[in-house]
Amino acid sequence: MDFNLDETQQELRGLAADVLGREASRERLEAYEKTGAPYDAATWKALAQAGLLGAVLPEEAGGAGLGAVELTVVLREIGAHVAPVPAYASLALAAVPIAAHGTKEQRALLAPLNEGEAVLTGAYREAGPVATIARRDGDGFLLDGVRAFVPYAEEASWILVPARVEGADIGIFLVEPSQVTLAPQPSSTTEPLSRIELSGVRAGPDALLGGAADGAAWRTFRRSAVAGAVALASGVIEGALNLTTEHVKTREQFGRALAQFQAVTMQVGDVYIAKRALDVAVWAGAWRLATQAPDTDEVLAVAAYNACEPVVEALYTCQHLHGGIGLDVTYPLHRYFAWGKQVGYLLGGAEEQLDTLGTLIAQEA
Description:
Number of strands: 9
CATH superfamily of the largest domain: Butyryl-CoA Dehydrogenase, subunit A, domain 3
CATH class of the largest domain: Mainly Alpha
Distance between the termini: 25 Å
CATH architecture of the largest domain: Up-down Bundle
Shape: globular
CATH topology of the largest domain: Butyryl-CoA Dehydrogenase, subunit A, domain 3
């Protein structure tokens, strides 16, 4: 495969970097964090006006109809700028599966997102297999189960909830936040997370994504969730490495820049290797997802493992190289560290990714 972005993708990356460079500057982030708001509405609106939210939305919703690689481009820049916006939740966890499998009426829900007027999310995290159940009830369903660490659940217009349907496979249901019991959960970042409980939640036949519970929408949802998360992590480690590189170039000790010490350069090299390993897996996974290659899940699992362990360890190294200032919440490095840790939590950790990869390889044997 060719890891170089084509002209459209390069322009998209440049546009995202330009918009976020203005909207997510250090001063703007510091001001936002004092507000206590769940996300930066001004940055969210700016992304919409620039067409960055609509890049992966279908044309009928006002979008450009682009795919997995372009989603990776946008989310990676958001991670590199640690921009506090619900892009991962709205795009990777909601818009992608709705665009791929939704009915005409369901896809119409994406139009407000294109304008930056709405937030969507999905309930991806659950320990083990999908345990939420959808029992048939007349022409609709009753949903029972618990989903954890759902981003922006309170702010969302709709939550996508995977559930096992009696007599069928896993389906994805569009549920309004008012229908479920929400409880706040701890977050490493300013991003709000919620535990959602569904107890006999009524879902009409029009709530089932695409009107079918054949596992196809769940597969898209799961893959998009992982691909989006590792794209964020790829941007996060790049931003942290750039910040660390600049620090060791300018910080002096014993009359010499830190970058002149061999031990420092070796540690920076370790961070770079972790970043490049993740980058390769991220772009390979995005390309395979875009082409629906048979080894998509394996490559995404490799990327997720790297995001959960080597990259988190690399972020610790970045903190170490900064010394005491690396722990100071008035210095920007803490945002990258928090984001990196949170992505690892949302992916389920390194051991889960190794188990997933082992299972996939065993199934092919």
